[in-house]
Amino acid sequence: MPSTSKLLRGGTVLTHDADDHVHPIKADILIQGNIISKIEKGIIPPEGAEVIDCTDKILSPGFVDTHHHLWQTLLKGRHANHLLLDYMPTGNFTSSLHSPADIFWGQLGGAMECLDVGTTTVVDFAHINYSPEHTIAATIASGIRSVFCYCPTPRIDSWNPLVMNHDLLAGWVMSSLERLAAASPFGDGRIELGFAFDGFFLPKETVISLFQKVKALGIRVITTHVVRGVVFGQDSIPELLKSYGLLDSSILFAHFSNPSPNCAKLLLESNSHASCTPSTELQMAMGYPVAFDPALRIQRNCSLGADCHSNNSASLVSEMRLLLQNARAVFNQPFVDAGNVPRKVNRTAEEAFNLGTINGARAIGMHDKIGSLAVGKYADILVFDALSSSMVCAAQHDPVAALVLHSSPADLEMVMVGGEVRKRDWMLEAVDVGKGEWAGREGMVGWREVARELVGRREELERKVSGLDFGEAERAAIREFGVEVGRIVEGVVGSS
Ligand SMILES: [Zn+2]
């Protein structure tokens, strides 16, 4: 925890009211320790406080990304033209080819990218459970706030032929979970242990006793992928959880794609939450993102995630924008088809902004601590430059519109997590990678050195995968997932 105070002076502060409307106000923000202690005009800085001039700056709450696989940095760029069945063997399964130090650097790169683009809190669906200590050490080093969701994951026993090990709950998995729970939270309290789980093929009694065990360990957030369809299956996980007596506000569904009306009802009744990830959902045939679906009406329980920074930018602003404009296109098309135009635009920039801020905080039960700028909350603060070429005039007219529709990470000048500066003067701060026990090197490391480590390790990973038959691995994945092969088709009626 920082010992000094900071005063952010003279900026435009984006504050939320009780109805989630955003009000930009001219004010100073005083940070004492890791907490916002005052938001008002003309604050006299306490003795010794660092005063940061925020004239012509917009101060936003840090973004809350509720679904992300932070380890995947070494895989960036390879999925641009992939569907889910391409991504699984070439991306997800290659966790087994990462050394512990690769895991550290991949995780560190992912967390630092998040900070660079304004994500101050992330729900990390850690479906790499080789050496979670390396993953957590990297998360601590980055300075990000995280719910680190440990995940029992099928391991790859062999690549040629591809054989997966489905002993999800082997003794070492559960002892790892218990060890982590005993040590949680990590990193001065910034990193809390959560649980990630996709093993609903296991017997009912096994799942129920597992969830009971997880809760008994004090874990508050349990997250699972829900993509109803050909690849992940047609089972309705929300209804399954309800029938097991396990559906409650601790559950965070990633995607929540193609829900039945009853699933939407269950989401609201149980006050569980969903994380939409527009980039991957739109690309990988998971269905339309659900947050702004007018038929489902589940927006208040929805939030946003970047999902795979191996596939797309970690920027939540990008996801806000993609979600908003896609939802507008879907809404507009029936009007266009009927030869009409809608009377008003569908959804607002403010609604998209809220999905990436206060709604994300609610999704993990932290809305009293993060997700908006308010006295008593953690000082997780973004400082945007209102005079940049992309922001100017938009920022002065409507700061929320400027952030959602005009900004890029290049406009983000400063990022703070709990009052600690992680990006300053548009540059990420150096990080402490420890004493050599995790990273293979020690001490403070600047971003460009992190990047060089990543480049070297990516090349090494490329050498490891060069001899693998991903075509065979994909066919094996199809078998493993129980995908009905006849459902994988070139086209359907009406497509070209
Ligand atoms: Zn995911």
UniProtKB/TrEMBL annotation:
NADP as UniProt keyword: no
Gene Ontology MF annotations: hydrolase activity, acting on carbon-nitrogen (but not peptide) bonds
Highest rank taxon of the organism: Eukaryota
Keyword annotations: Hydrolase
Amidohydrolase-related domain ranges (all copies): 58-153, 235-421
InterPro entries: Amidohydro-rel, Metal-dep_hydrolase_composite, Metal_Hydrolase, MTA/SAH_deaminase
Pfam families found in the cross-reference section: Amidohydro_1
Matching PANTHER family: AMIDOHYDROLASE-RELATED DOMAIN-CONTAINING PROTEIN, AMINOHYDROLASE SSNA-RELATED
Protein name, as recorded: Amidohydrolase-related domain-containing protein
